Amino acid sequence: MAEHTLQGLALYHFESCPYCQKVRRAMAELGLAIELRDTRQTPAYREEQISGGGKGQVPCLRIEKEGQVTWLYESDAIIDYIKAL
Fold first, then answer.
1. What's the pLDDT tens digit per position in 53-64?
2. Are 75 and 22 in contact (CB under 8 A)?
3. Which end of the chain has fewer CB atoms at under 10 Å, N or C?
4. Residues 6 or more apart from 39 whose CB is under 8 A from it?
5. C-alpha to C-alpha distance for 53 and 57, rounded to whole angstroms
6. DSSP symbol at 55
7. Tell me, which fold does domain 4-83 have in CATH?
């Protein structure tokens, strides 16, 4: 299955987080390429997430649509969102 790159989406995560792994696995199963922003390897991503979304919890999906930015937390909510795309 070819990957479908989704514009305006970024997943804030880190490698060893089991909830992040669950979301990345769902992305792979769905063939979706979403930009990954590792908050442990790149502290600036964590700062960006806290200033924009209010907390540094991962996984977190940043959704930018029509100039509006929404921050979606919780792995199950993120998976439900990407399945509906």
1. 999 999 999 999
2. yes
3. N
4. 12, 13, 14, 45, 46, 49, 56, 58
5. 9
6. S
7. Glutaredoxin (3.40.30)
Residues in the chain: 85
Structure tokens at 62: 């940043």
- Beta-carbon count within 10 A of 73 CB: 16
Convert the pLDDT of each residue in 21-49 to its tens digit.
Answer: 999 999 999 999 999 999 999 999 999 99
Query: For residue 62, with 0-12 CB atoms within 10 Å meaning exposed, 13-18 middle and 19 or more buried, which class applies?
Result: buried
Quick one: CA torsion of 34, 37, 38, 42, rounded to 10 degrees?
Answer: 160
